[in-house]
Amino acid sequence: MLDVKDLREDLEGVKKALSKRNKDFGLDKFTELDENRRKLIQEVEELKNKQNTESKEIANLKQKGEDATKLLADMKELSDKIKELDGKLKEVEKETEELLLSIPNIPNEKVKQGLTDEDNEEMRKWGTPRKFSFEYKAHWDIGKDLDILDPETAAKTTGTRFTFYKGMGARLERAVMNFMMDTHATKDGYTETIAPSIVNADALQGTGQLPKFKEDMFKIENTNYYLSPTSEVPVTNMYREDIIDGKKLPLKYCCFTPCYRAEAGSAGRDTRGLVRQHQFYKVEMVKFTRPEQSYDELESLTNDAENILKLLDLPYRVVRLCSGDLGFSAAMTYDVEVWMPSYNRYVEISSCSNCEAFQARRAGIRFKDNIQDKAQYAHTLNGSGLAVGRTVAAILENYQNEDGSVTVPEVLVPYMLGVEVIK
RNA sequence: GGAGAAGUACUCAAGUGGCUGAAGAGGUGCCCCUGCUAAGGGUAUAGGUCGUUAGCGCGGCGCGGGGGUUCAAAUCCCCCCUUCUCCGCCA
Known about the structure:
Elements: H1 4-9, H2 11-19, H3 28-64, H4 69-101, E1 121-126, H5 139-145, E2 149-150, H6 151-157, E3 164-165, H7 168-185, E4 191-193, E5 198-200, H8 201-207, E6 225-227, H9 232-236, E7 242-245, E8 251-260, E9 279-289, H10 294-312, E10 316-320, E11 332-340, E12 345-354, H11 358-363, E13 365-368, E14 376-377, E15 379-387, H12 388-398, E16 406-407, E17 421-422
Parallel strand pairs: 4-8, 7-13
Antiparallel strand pairs: 1-10, 2-3, 5-6, 8-9, 9-15, 10-11, 11-12, 12-15, 13-14, 16-17
Helix pairs in contact: 3-4, 5-12, 7-12
This protein binds one RNA strand through helix 3 and helix 4.
């Protein structure tokens, strides 16, 4: 949610900043709604003030045993008027809220104007894509040939875009997950968590998935619950409607959960392999920071994601998303993209965002240093650290050998219980 | 899933229709006494949010959340959420 104060004081400035997103968000309506709202508040509060005063008078009269019928008749009328205005006010407030909830975050000024991912800015590259001296395979073929990835069986139990991991495939997935969690929870200083992967509508509104992106999620029938699309949702909402002790900031959490995405609108894209599944595992990093430190924390968060790839010795690059590719809640996002031989390009494996106060305002996440201070909104950040399935895919492809086997990256060997080659 | 009980400010807690924005206690700030700790006395403060104002302030809301009854609701009615106890079921 944007700051209402900004909308009141500089609507044109906000519109200009948002125009980078290449769309009109109907902001003009705000002023009218807001003025109407304030007018109604003044009217109804004046009446309520009168009601409060007169009520005391009635209480007085009754206590003295005097007659209050005249006053009561007047008060009935006043009461009805108040109810009517309160009803109108509620409508206007609802409309205002709906408008505010539908407006995306303002891109940071450094974010480049652009339309698609082709306009993203490359920040840096690490490692060199491997040159194969033999005909290399895509990870879905490797998975099939080694009998470690089995989408056909998953189709039988569930449907398309699900995968059974078997044998060393399952162990590799688990190894990658544990390696990532261990690294973040010890060296990087994140508090490790395991969060519910089912979340309610309030939480989803807090992080920005609702109300606009309902179709991207699986809703559980007859409940108010959704399968969580990312642990950013439960972890960020840990502090919903809370006031955090400012001395504790920045707070850093890492979390692994399964993630569920309906992938509506992506029919026919990345249908093979692990890149676009309805269910996948992801290690997520979430930070709560003071406003002035959030961009430094974004850099270190991104570095923490990159570091996993360095330790796995997988070539990657970092891009800063252009305005057209930027997510709804983010002010700035770095995508970390791993080299995927079968795609012959870099593929997103982590998305690290600073949401500034956008989510904090929706979710009511605030902090104060002293009890007498006014609480202010924290900044929230999140980033994958990393998507586990895509990491497995990248390992299978980048570490494949001519004989069809796959060498296990050195750091993962202990996590693989000593297995050095999958064959 | 069934049966009960409960949810009041930072914490504990009183309060069944108007004199309760909310007793009392703890906590916290300041002062005094005592004095290196412990203890005692006095006094102040009471969270959040919305509107208004240059500001002091004034006003509205607020007693888990949402509706309703009433001139008036922490207090009465309905729905929901959460916690606790017991039973059932279950990894």
